[in-house]
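Box S1 | Example of a co-folding query
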Amino acid sequence: MSIISTDIQKAKALLSADKLVAIPTETVYGLAGNIYSEKAIKAIFETKQRPLFNPLIVHIASIKNIDTIVSYVPEKAKQLASVFWPGSLTLVLPKSDTIPDIITAGKPTVAVRVPNHPLTLKLLKQLEFPLAAPSANPFNRISPTTAAHVEGYFKDKIEMILDGGACKNGIESTIVGFEHDEPIIYRLGSIAIEDIKAVIGEISVKNKKEHNPEAPGMLDKHYAPITRTVLSTNISEDIKKYPNMRIGIIEFTSHSQSNVVKHQITLSNRGDLAEATSKLYGALHRLDNSDLDIIIVEIFPDTGLGKSINDRLSRAKTK
Ligand code: AMP
Ligand code: MG
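Box S1 (continued) | Returned holo structure for adenosine monophosphate
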């Protein structure tokens, strides 16, 4: 029997019994558990094979619940939350005493957001506790954007995937923290820097692990396919470098067809960044499962969401 279902009551019952349920969000699917259940949170780390030093994001039903999670909200965090929640912005703020250390990897701060997916919001509103929900993929693998991706990863390990269709945005949330009340981007993501600047003005980016003890999750090799993956700004030229290989290509927008290529995916014929972003992880999943020797991915235009995608691509490529 498939573990994929739309039964919210079943998800509620499982989560209330310390079990894990994969949930849809507008960014990627999450592997969710009760933040106050030690058993559930340990199971999240074990199921994902995620190192304990990598903290989890807490998902709440409404901005009204934030005071149960954090002890202080800077003015600029309030502005961001009021514009982007429910949505793909994660805030890192000083934690309240009741948040277990395992959630924050022992840090004094906690990551929190209100996701923007109708099914998951409905579920969160019915639960008596918030959900910790890191992306529902094994550590270092590509994040899932459909229930089928999660099933491929965790079929034998979890009891239920709440099916909310394909994720609309298709890339992880943007993470913003504060140091001395100054905002800092810890992870580029679903909300473009330009849109954040439009609300709170200048913001610095500390997105690389070596500069970023605050977000140990930003490991350099992350989000990676198993198949050898290279990046390109000129796919038709680069194809020639790999004679006699089974090549898959993912192009940002439409270029000429090539007959040496086995699989070719165009992310957006009209060159639309949001459309291409929403399809990228699905394309990587598909080609990674297509028995290829190499995947060549076209680098996105380096603006808006393209910056976030290029950051992910630089981590996905084979080193
Ligand atoms: P995931 O939910 O799998 O997308 O990963 C969660 C991300 O949030 C990781 O990159 C974490 O490092 C980051 N994160 C969670 N809590 C904190 C925190 N307290 N401070 C900084 N980054 C955090
Ligand atoms: Mg993740």
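The mean pLDDT is 93. Residues 273-288 form the longest helix (16 residues).
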